[in-house]
Amino acid sequence: MTTNWAPYPAGPGAAMAGQAAPGFVRAAQAAIRGRTRPWRAYAVLVVLFAFMGPYSLHRSSAEAQQGAAALQTAAAQSGGGVEEGAKTRRVAILALGLFAALTLSSVRRRRTAQGGSGQWEAVAVSPTGDTRFQSPVVWRAAPVANSLTGAPARRTALAWFLLGYFGVAAASVAWAIDPGFTARRLIAFLVIAFAAFVLGQAWSLRDVVYFALIANLMPLLLGFVLSVGRGDFHPFTQTYRFTGLAHPNVHGLEGACLVMAAFCALRLGGRRVPLLSILVFGIVLLYLTKSRTAVGAVVLAGAVCMMVAVSRRRLLVLAMAVAAVAGSVVIFAPDVAGRAHEAALLERSAKSDDPATLSGRTLLWSDLMAYAAEKPVLGYGFDSFWTADHIAEISLRRGWVIIQAHSGYIQELLDTGVLGLSILVLILIAALRAAFVRYRLTRSPLALYALAMFVWYVATLIPEAVDLSHVSTFIVMILLAHFALRTAARDDDVPEPPRLPTVRVSAAAY
Q1: Reduced to 3 states, what is the DSSP secondary structure of residue 503?
Q2: Please, are residues 435 and 491 in contact by the beta-carbon 8 Å criterion?
Q3: Which of 170, 174, 179, 358 is the most exposed place for a label (fewest CB within 10 A)?
Q4: Low pLDDT (below 70) residues in the chain
Q5: What's the N-to-C CA distance of the chain in angstroms?
């Protein structure tokens, strides 16, 4: 049975199926190539997240506080800052909500002007073009058509998991240790999630890639310029870690996201010289942050994407080549293996950054699990565990200022208990599956980018708790909205069919 897509016919005797399709596809591809990105929206969001992020014009030190008195003072200041919050951050979140509301209004007006909801209509016609014969069997093809050209035809498991997580987060105000503090954190999160929900409808995946490119390039570039201007950019010093505008681990997140976005933009056929320059810049600064979490997660994401995209035969040849090289090094150049071990640790001192304890993380996690055992099911309230009291207690016990769990999963366990953590894991699994299925159907670099981002985020949350207001989390939230919403914007490399197309099925099939 042959199925063709064509515009809805004016009546009996209309043009045969498939005559208009090639011209439409060519026009759609030309529109994709000539389409401009929402650069003004990018600029607004970069500024807003700059005010929401942990950035400072002063040098950010990664060193531990010396002395109990100094540590207690620093912990008290950090705890007070966490509970009170920054006024600029509040203003930025309100501005983000206003931006999202205006964007949603614009999206709805544009869709209304384009002619309704874009529902599919299926009509079976005879070879002569007669549309009077209609078959109910072709109506069942409509959901498949929807899934191939954009949003899913029905609400997916990912959407239900996201709704469940929002419900648990909102309900946690009822049992939080400080309901007012939890409510403020919840409102900020819901505003950010609302913005991601809107952009999932307004932006295609290609728009998201270019936003990730700009949003992660700007803090790294400004931090690089500032570091050079301060005179503390010493990349050839063994103990040096790039600080720029924030802690090296924060810039490590941005470097990893920049590398993945630049690589995807190259695969999409962007301008090679600027994109290659950005890619090299991101790789260099990612290494200079010496963030083992960021480097390891981006390497894992690349490896997973290679296994998905490359044929099994090529993977087997590559694995054999790597094994042969590794065996040769161990046998004929054992000194190289020792230097490779140092390079894997990013030349960080084992005395101050013990890899056996993940730089002290495992000791911290053992302390936090005792707190989690007190409220195992529901937790302490959404994003509310790190009060001033908890910051002071745990910082004094561990000997350095601690304002996060340094594990997104343990952080979730503390905030929303086993219930919230279980839903979060289900969300991530559903997101990985959705991106993998999309790539298997389309073989699109955009779907592969989404898969890489999800793998990177899953791996990053093991040793790091990424702030909800950081731009990398926001990008992941947009991707989640894109894969969960029925009204999500279409991928740029999947041409949008004309309004009210028809499925024309030859009568000979019956």
Answers
A1: strand
A2: no
A3: 174
A4: 1-35, 58-72, 75-85, 114-155, 312, 314-356, 493-510
A5: 9
Give SS3 for 145.
helix
Q: Which residues pair with 504 in a beta bridge?
A: 4
Backbone angles phi, psi at 331, to 5 degrees: -80, -50
Q: Over the range 173-195, which residues count as b (16 or more CB within 10 Å of their CB) and which as e?
A: beebebeebbbbbbebbbbbbbb
d(CA 173, CA 185): 10
CA distances from 145 to 18, 140, 142 (A): 15, 10, 5
* Domains: count for the chain: 1
* CA distances for 124 relative to 4, 24, 501, angstroms: 11, 21, 12
pLDDT in the model for residue 310 = 81
**What distance in Å separates the CA atoms of residue 361 and residue 377, rounded to the nearest whole number?**
23
pLDDT at 458: 97
CB 479 within 8 A of CB 453: yes
Instruction: Kindly give, in sequence order, each residue whose CB lies less than 8 Å from that of residue 173, ignoring residues fewer than 6 positions away.
Output: 179, 182, 183, 186, 381, 382
Asked if residue 111 is part of any domain, the answer here is yes
CB under 8 Å to 273, separation ≥6 — which residues? none
Is residue 302 within 8 A of residue 452, CB to CB? The reply is yes
- What's the pLDDT score for residue 353? 59
In a domain, 297, yes or no: no
Report the helix count and the strand count for the chain, using DSSP H and E.
18, 2
Neighbouring-strand partners of residue 260: none
Beta carbons within 10 angstroms of residue 55's beta carbon:
18
User: What pLDDT score does 146 carry?
Assistant: 42
Rounded Cα distance between 471 and 452, Å, is 16
Does 249 map to a domain? Answer: no
**Domain-located, residue 157:** yes
What lies within 8 Å, CB to CB, of 441 at 6+ separation is 148
d(CA 61, CA 239): 13
Computed on alpha carbons and rounded to an integer, the radius of gyration of the chain in Å comes to 26
115 close to 495: Cβ distance less than 8 angstroms: no
CA distance 111 to 197: 16
In this structure, are residues 442 and 430 in contact, taking their beta carbons and an 8 Å threshold?
Answer: no
CB-CB neighbours of 30 under 10 Å: 10
Tokens of 260: 């993945």
Torsions phi, psi for 502 (to 5 deg): -125, 150
pLDDT at 23: 46
For 43, the domain range is 36-116+151-229+343-493
Helix H or strand E encompassing 42? helix 39-52
7 forms beta bridges with 501
